């Protein structure tokens, strides 16, 4: 294999040629599909003598014409990745016609044009269009497309592409055609085509300027009843974008298609979003509250891309976070407005800590805007998406809601119809507000999670309260030395009664700055920390306050403060910032877990601090609190989060300690947990709204605690909940509660669940995942058996993510000391890579932090990575992750 080539941001060059219109004709067939592409090309500089280099992969070239004339062999060059027209005409415009042949029925990579459950569909982001036809496959080539699709009418009655349907009709031989025209220019990654047997749920949306938009959600006919929630979500998203950002939909038709085989969650193709079925289909009996919430968020996300991504797109793939960070931020805000803001923030911050922090501290660490990549597919990461969203959130924290909106308005005004960079977004934000955000751009270029330390002191005599901040950004691959970052610190100060102290002024660098706004007191202010070390002194503080720092998690940093345990318990009980109440509990839990891990490692007996039990009890019993907030606040940090904080990660110790605390809490709070279950049962049919979801969440967490006791009474209780459940949220939670403990009941209930749901592949995937993630010792064997289960199929990404991805989510089994988990995964990666490199590279990432473990585990994991690297014909996707992990 040739060593894959690395591509660098610094090498970006403007294209020599632009495309104006693209006319595509697809003739879809069972053995082969023929694509004719007619492109009008114009040079960036008239008279250029540059060759025109087109990307193309796995294509059979049938013919190529320039201005109607067939090119001869000496006029072009063809290799496995490119088609080069050696001397294009030196005119200011010419046409290029290319005919290619492809075999979608054999395409298991699920990129380009492929078949899913008998239907044709496409996935072109990031670089899939080059698997359809030869093209300049880069986002700064934006053109107007028409697309004619021709196919057998019985097999493929529905023919869809981007934009508006302008013509359709029948052809000879039982075939038919449709012609679609998209009036908006777009990069090819937004091209889409779907052909198949589908039915639609139809609805309409009237935009605020009075335009009527037809909305259609397409699925196989039997799934249509499960699209009610998706349609609700779409309409809610359309309304929200108008209300919050003043953004209207711009065409008369919006299509969503659900397909069962899809590498990612969903794709924002212009007016023809294609979704993984998992993120469209839902009914109370077959989807959980988490699924409903994910559907709302992702339908919103893809819809919001219409402006942030499609109308304004990325100049190159390094700028991916320009559209993704911004769109994740927008979907987070949408979900917050539709449910509970605090709970959504907690969920988003937990995700960042659980997945992004470890990535940023490992060999795959990269900035929000990466400097280089081998395979762009590998950079659809939690860093680009979630940390990218935190970066956008910081603009809003710094500029305020109104200032942020002004920045967004200017961004669209300046860049509608363009392919731009992260600097363009930054400039719009600054210019719209006359703001100087100095070194803020470092958030795009410096990788690593800053370590942010805070110490405080109080002087009663001068009534001055000082906060000293210091920051350090750890070295990451290719970036040994870092500059200090611009950290917005939202903070409040609590008095001894737990109330916010009005903040009037603060000394900073010898200047007294007023905090009050229009004479009104301010309780939360945002400090701008920009240096390695910086001090702020608040005046007029009449007693020693307790600081509530980084309210709402105002910057993606690791905070270390000098708050004592009693300060943290105080914040847990009183902070007016609910996010920080949760955070205080988490800091306490992390400290407690780490100290018990140390005890466990020294063979000391484990004892749970009664103050912690009391803290949890008071949250659990506080009727004034939101129930989902309680559910989150009584949930311990995950095992990964604790391992991430250790010098040498010890999965067995962390697992033992987390289980110990859970059991201990369950046994000491038995009565309270039991009444929580009893008082929060469903009395009515399923409703997707915050109060109902919150109630179910709390009940389910309480049930899981009780079932962890392995006591017959609570196993019976869980069985009762399982049998009496009227929705999947409660039924599945009861199943999971039972499945924590090995034994006959577990096996019986798992068997019962499968027989009930065997015909619903999405529910069966949950059943796979639940077993795969199990901490039961030696689970690798069970997962091995499930690989052979008739419902499992290695070609379907969802099934792989459930069973194989699920297995990696169990630290005790994946990191089993005998290496069985690593060996299992190593073999799977090699097998999977031949089917779908993109899915395989997601799986191989499980190995990337192997250096965090002890010597024995290190050498076992390393051996598997080396075995993978030595495999013949390894994909670039897996090569990139495996080689960087070993570097
Ligand atoms: N732009 C999509 C993410 C996406 C990227 C690549 C894909 O290829 C299989 C699919 C989807 C989003 O952010 O939703
Ligand atoms: Zn996106």
Automatic annotation (TrEMBL):
One of its GO terms (molecular function) is metallopeptidase activity. SUPFAM superfamilies: Leukotriene A4 hydrolase N-terminal domain (SSF63737), Metalloproteases ('zincins'), catalytic domain (SSF55486). GO terms for biological process: proteolysis. CDD domains: M1_APN. The keyword Protease applies. Its EC number is 3.4.11.14. Keywords: Aminopeptidase, Hydrolase, Metal-binding, Metalloprotease, Protease, Zinc. The keyword Nucleotide-binding does not apply. Pfam families: DUF3458, DUF3458_C, Peptidase_M1, Peptidase_M1_N. Its cofactor is Zn(2+). It catalyses: Release of an N-terminal amino acid, preferentially alanine, from a wide range of peptides, amides and arylamides. Belongs to the peptidase M1 family. This is Puromycin-sensitive aminopeptidase. It comes from Nelumbo nucifera (Sacred lotus). The gene is LOC104596022.
